[in-house]
Amino acid sequence: MSSSRKALVTGVTGFIGHHLATRLIEEGWTVTVVVRNGSSEARIPNGAHVARHDGSSIGMMEIFSLARPEVVFHLASKIVTRHSLADLDSLVDSNLRFGLQLLEATVSVGCGRFVNTGTGWQHFENRDYDPVCLYAATKQAFEDLIEYYVRVSGLKVATLKLHDNYGEEDPRGKLMALLLGAALSGELLDLSPGEQRIDLVNVRDVASAFMITDRVLAAQPASVHLHYMIKAPETISIRELAELIQKVTGRPVNAVWGARPYREREVMMPSDRGEQVPGWQPTVTLEEGIREIWKKMT
User: Fold this and answer.
1) Considering only Cβ atoms within 10 Å of each terminal Cβ, which end of the chain, N or C, has fewer?
2) Per-residue pLDDT tens over the stretch 51-90
3) Are 9 and 33 in contact (CB under 8 A)?
């Protein structure tokens, strides 16, 4: 593979960003990862060029001037499911101001492609726009800011909206890890009634979707803002997921269903708005993905 392909990735200390950056490096890309001053380098993949961002717009411009990427993969985000007053500044700083700095620098150095990350939570009860939480509202606000740059600069942008994702060595403590941990330990796990359905895509397939999206953007003849939803072939309820884990592991998941109430504005069915990324299909079945994680755990 040619090393001339250059990408800049944000959110590399997160689960998906780490996997995407690793995959790009494995396929011969020159990858610059933007991290905040003080961030740990523990999850930064070998071979990545680390650019520490001081928070300023000028600092971001200097990073881009050195990196000269041809595509930006923007995955960094502040995720807060139920915000408090103390979260407001960090939500705006991470999800709007940081993104604006990226867009401005992208355009200024002549980088033509920008792959953004949205969330299915922008579409509560499958509506065109109904944010589940303030975090989702900031994601929509950033999409609106993107439109300005698409219209005035010739930038090619795609926003990939994600539902739930999972994979090996996931540090986030999400549902999959909780259920597998309960199967391993045999301890009781307090959960909601478990009737909500979720859409689970393996992180390897998510990384592939980002890379294919870049190729789709490169083929566009003019500026554009494309919107895609990364979706599994079918949804599964949390109760059904627990049953599948019991089947794969041979261990009971001692869930106490209904011990926790549903959250305010609980998503009972993930949104299916948005087309699939052209040329992309998930390749890792849920059963295969669970088996891979369990093997690592045991």
Assistant:
1) N
2) 999 999 999 999 999 999 999 999 999 999 999 999 999 9
3) yes
Residue-level pLDDT at 94? 97
At 65, list the tokens.
Answer: 């001037």
Res. 166: pLDDT tops 80? yes
Q: Is 231 in contact with 199 (CB distance < 8 Å)? A: yes
Inter-CA distances, 62 with 77, 176, 219, 235, 275, Å? 21, 40, 28, 44, 36
Cβ neighbours for 133, distance < 8 A, ≥ 6 positions apart: 80, 81, 82, 83, 121, 265
pLDDT digits (tens, 9 = 90+) for 234-267: 999 999 999 999 999 999 999 999 999 999 999 9
Return d(Cα 107, Cα 207) in angstroms, integer: 24
* Phi, psi at 170, each rounded to 5°: -85, 115
Q: List pLDDT tens digits, range 176-192.
A: 999 999 999 999 999 99
pLDDT of residue 169: 87
